[in-house]
Amino acid sequence: MKCKIKLYAALCIIAMSALSASAWGRLGHDAVAGIAEKHLTPRAKANIERYLGNHSIVYYASWMDWVRQMPHYNHSSRWHASNVDSLGVYYPSQRRDAVEGCRKTFENLRRHKEMTDSAVADNIKLFVHIVGDMHCPGHAFYTGYDQKNIYFKLNGKKAQVHDFWDNWVLDQHPWQYKEYVEQLDRFDNSQIAEMQKGTPEEWATESGKAISGTYGWFENGRDYYKAETYSRILAGEKIAHERIVRAGYRLARLLNEVFDY
Q1: I want to staple 30 with a disulfide (CB 3.0 to 4.6 A). Which of 5, 55, 128, 177 is the partner?
Q2: How far apart are CA 173 and CA 179, in angstroms?
C-alpha cells in the first residue's frame, strides 16, 4: 500500500510539472490544432490520421507536455521555449530551443516515408505542440527578465507571468476549443496566406516582440484588483488570440506541405 501511495504521489508531481510548464495550457494547444485541422487538405488530414491511429491532431496537441519527463523523449524538454533579446528578437540558445525543435521535427517529417510509422507519429505530435509553443508569448524568454521568479496576485489569486499567458488570458470565455476555432478562424484566403508566411526564427521573434512590451505589466509581490486585473487580461487576450490563429494557419501550411499527396 505504501508503495502505491508513493507511486501515486510521484505521478501527481510529474503531472503537475507538465501542466505548469505547458504553454497556452490544454485549451490553447487544442485551439491551435483545431484551427490547423480546419485548413488541412483532405489528403493531408487522412494521411496524418493514418499515422495517429485515426486520431486527429487535436487529440495529441498537448502530448508533448506529458512525455517530456520520460527518458525516451527527454531530448524534447528544451523544445518548448525560445530566447529573445531586449528588443524581442530571437537568438539561438546553446542548450536547444523551440526553433531547433521545430526545424528538426519538420525535417524528420519531410523524410517520413523513410521512417517507421511510430517514429512518424511521434514527430507529428511533437511538431504540432512545438508550433503552438513558439507562438505563446509566455514561451519567449526575454533577456534581463526572470519571469519564473515574479509572483503577484490577480483579484486575490496567486499568479505568475507564465501562468498569466497559459491560463488567465484564455479563461475569460466559457468556451471549449471548438468555440475558439469558430471565433478566431474568420479570415479570408488572402489574409490567411499572408499570415502563414515566415520562418521559425521569425515566428519566435514575433512572440518576443509581442511580449516585450508587456513585462512592465507585473511587479513582483504586487496585488492587482478588478480594473487593474481586467485591463491586463483584455490586453493579453488580444495578443494571445492573434498568436493562436497564426500558429494554427502556419501549422496547417507545413503539414499540408508534407502530407498532401
Answers
A1: 177
A2: 9
